[in-house]
Amino acid sequence: MTALLTRVRRYMDEHRFTLLDLPIWLVGMAVAFAWFAPFVWMVSTSLKYPEDVMTAQIEWLPNRITFDNYVKVFEYPVVRWAFNSLVQAGVATSLSVLFGAMAGYGLARMRFPGRDGLFALFLASLMIPTEVSIIPMLLGFIKMGWASSYQALILPSIGNVFAVYIFRQFFLGFPAEIEEAARVDGAGPFRLFFLIALPLARAPAIAAAVILFTLNWNNFLWPLLVTFDESMKTLPVGIAAFTPVVGTRTQLEGFSVAMAAVTILSVPSLALFFLLQRYFIQGISQGSIKS
Amino acid sequence: MSRVELSGITKRFGAFEAIRGIDLTVEDGEFAVFVGPSGCGKSTLLRLICGLEVPTEGAIRFDDRDVRGVPPAGRRLAMVFQSYALYPHMSVAENMGFALRMAGISRAERAVRVARAAETLQITRLLERRPKELSGGQRQRVAIGRAIVREPSLFLFDEPLSNLDAELRVEMRAELMELHRRLATTMIYVTHDQIEAMTMADRIVVLRDGRIEQAGSPTMLYERPANRFVASFIGSPRMNFLAARVTRVEPGRVTIDLPGLLPGVAGEPLALAVAERHGLRIDDSVELGVRSEHLGLEPRPHRLQARISFSEYVGGAWHLHAGDHPAGRLVLRHAGAPIHAGETLELGLDMAGCHLFAPSGLRVSV
Ligand SMILES: Nc1ncnc2c1ncn2[C@@H]1O[C@H](COP(=O)(O)OP(=O)(O)OP(=O)(O)O)[C@@H](O)[C@H]1O
Ligand SMILES: [Mg+2]
């Protein structure tokens, strides 16, 4: 017991953790659990037999497991949907990072009339709920004959205020002398951006890419509305149709297969996050480069 | 080659006037140093010449060509920044070749020119490294290399050595002077270190609050400072300023009284030759400026009595401080037997090295 206490004490000292930090730590842990529980439930359900999905006693971890659900996922055209999702999320993310970088750079570094007003307008646009504009936008796309197309999936998300914001913050703290040196060396605005500023903005680019990829990958409402054929569905839209009843399967069976599909769906985002975690946190927490 | 002419240059940032009407010509091949206290506008002036800032008023001419509207890249100049401003994502070779690449010069020729510059600066073996893999001194060399690769007709340096340690600074100073001797290109160098200014400059431009206080050769600024500010800024230890009072005004000559002055050997009053229009009147408060080397233990007609409050050994000599002299604090340089705090000395004034400053701060003695 005392040995344990000593170890706790040493750990606390090493991490500069005091008793005052305890409430914060507890709240943090509670939030972390609240976030984590659905994830555990998802993975656990995906491994259950249909009859174990809804039991009187909550089974957080399945008593017996099966991989059948994962096999059944592939009875649907999930490969095609995954391809659609990948194209949609990949292209939309790349473009919104590029445009976010350009806009953020312009807003942070170039002097032009109305610049700060423009930025305020960008921020204000966050207050308009998607639901307000989504139907007119849908009608517009249908009128243009772009319903159920990659353009329709991609175009609405290529401009992202969050990306603009994160790059703007970064470029505000970017050393002016580096840019001035490049100007003296003869770089015009475009080469300044593409050869100097953008290559040095790796941290915010990665942070924005991870977040936007996850958002785009999970995007549900818009793809649901704009895709009319099975072949243009994205993964979330396709998977949503697994429940409540699909064909001859029962609702419970639909649940566990859907959870298996969603588990697969979450892999790319998670992988991306863990792979780039270091840069991601850097990019979010500070917006400058060390000279 | 480049001769830089500034006429009536003013620069305002909003309501704040950073540069207030500067007229200056830097001759072709000259090594000019802008010096002055922090915030006096040195960098701003350099950036105006560079083209990174646009003057609010006035004209800048390079070899009689007005460069208004010409971007920095079109001015055939190179600038070395205080922070070096190397491109962190490029190798040393890419850094040095960047301007050439922007100018559309072929890869092969770039390599040749970069190699040549690297050899001059002895950084050939660093060419493949990234800036973060270099020491401060090496970075500085690369920054200078990046400038010389372009063979500009004007070099601008903004406190390029201030991030280096003292020893390296002296070394790089010598290298820069050698570079100037070899290239014979016009160089404008900004520093707040008056020793750097004194040792390197053909001409020093002393700035204060956006104005030129005086421009001239190091000897001229040291021996004939235009005003009290320049006199106090140039030289180390700083010039001593002794409060005095005008007791007699004659054509071309002013007699003053100094507190703590010992009776003259010949009963001779303390008088200085002054310029024609000095505007001094009897009873005006003036200051007598005397550098430490003109204040010594040698017997001289005019002597001050001073008690040494502390002495600093500076290698080969002492700086003796007299903090409580009635006319103001004194510092003198003394080589010889050590003198300790508490001793009272009789200091001879070498009148040939004394300056008289009017209440306005202008030097009126000739
Ligand atoms: N972009 C700007 N906007 C507003 N004020 C500025 C700007 N650039 C410089 N100033 C002001 O102009 C004055 C001169 O600045 P400058 O950088 O030229 O000084 P400096 O002599 O180089 O000083 P230091 O030795 O500290 O580098 C300062 O008071 C500074 O605050
Ligand atoms: Mg400066």
Question: How are the SSEs placed, and which strands pair?
Answer:
The complex is a heterodimer of chains A (291) and B (366).
Chain A: H1 2-14, H2 22-46, H3 68-73, H4 78-109, H5 115-125, H6 130-143, H7 150-154, H8 161-172, H9 176-184, H10 189-197, H11 202-218, H12 221-226, H13 235-240, H14 251-285
Helix pairs in contact in A: 2-14, 4-8, 4-11, 8-11, 9-10, 11-14
Chain B: E1 4-13, E2 16-26, E3 31-35, H1 42-50, E4 57-62, E5 65-66, E6 77-80, H2 92-102, H3 107-120, H4 136-149, E7 154-158, H5 166-183, E8 186-191, H6 194-200, E9 203-208, E10 211-216, H7 218-223, H8 228-233, E11 240-250, E12 253-257, E13 270-273, E14 285-290, E15 295-296, E16 303-307, E17 310-313, E18 318-322, E19 330-334, E20 344-349, E21 354-357
Parallel strand pairs in B: 3-8, 3-9, 6-7, 7-8
Antiparallel strand pairs in B: 1-2, 1-4, 4-5, 9-10, 11-12, 11-14, 12-13, 14-21, 15-20, 16-20, 17-18, 18-19
Helix pairs in contact in B: 2-3, 2-4, 3-4
The complex binds adenosine-5'-triphosphate (ATP) and magnesium ion (MG).
Domain ABC transmembrane type-1 (chain A): 82-276
Keywords (chain A): Cell membrane, Membrane, Sugar transport, Transmembrane, Transmembrane helix, Transport
Membrane topology (chain A): Multi-pass membrane protein
CATH topology label of the largest domain in chain B = Rossmann fold
Gyration radius over CA of chain B = 25 Å
Using only C-alpha atoms, the radius of gyration of chain A works out to 24 Å
**How many strands appear in the DSSP assignment of chain B?**
21
What does the model show?
The complex is a heterodimer of chains A (291) and B (366). Helix content of chain A is 69%, strand content 0%. The longest helix of chain A has 35 residues, at 251-285. Chain A folds into 2 domains: 2-70, no CATH class; 77-241, MetI-like fold (Orthogonal Bundle), CATH 1.10.3720. Chain A is built from 14 helices and no strands. In chain A, 32% of the residues are buried. In chain A, helix 2 (22-46) packs antiparallel against helix 14, helix 4 runs antiparallel to helix 11 and helix 8 runs antiparallel to helix 11 (202-218). Chain B is of the alpha+beta class. Chain B is 23% helix and 32% strand. Chain B is built from 8 helices and 21 strands. Chain B has helices spanning 42-50, 92-102, 107-120, 136-149, 166-183, 194-200, 218-223, 228-233, and strands spanning 4-13, 16-26, 31-35, 57-62, 65-66, 77-80, 154-158, 186-191, 203-208, 211-216, 240-250, 253-257, 270-273, 285-290, 295-296, 303-307, 310-313, 318-322, 330-334, 344-349, 354-357. In chain B, helix 2 crosses helix 3 and helix 3 packs across helix 4 (136-149). The two termini of chain B are 37 Å apart. The complex binds adenosine-5'-triphosphate and magnesium ion. Adenosine-5'-triphosphate binds at residues 13, 16, 18, 36, 38-44, 192 of chain B.
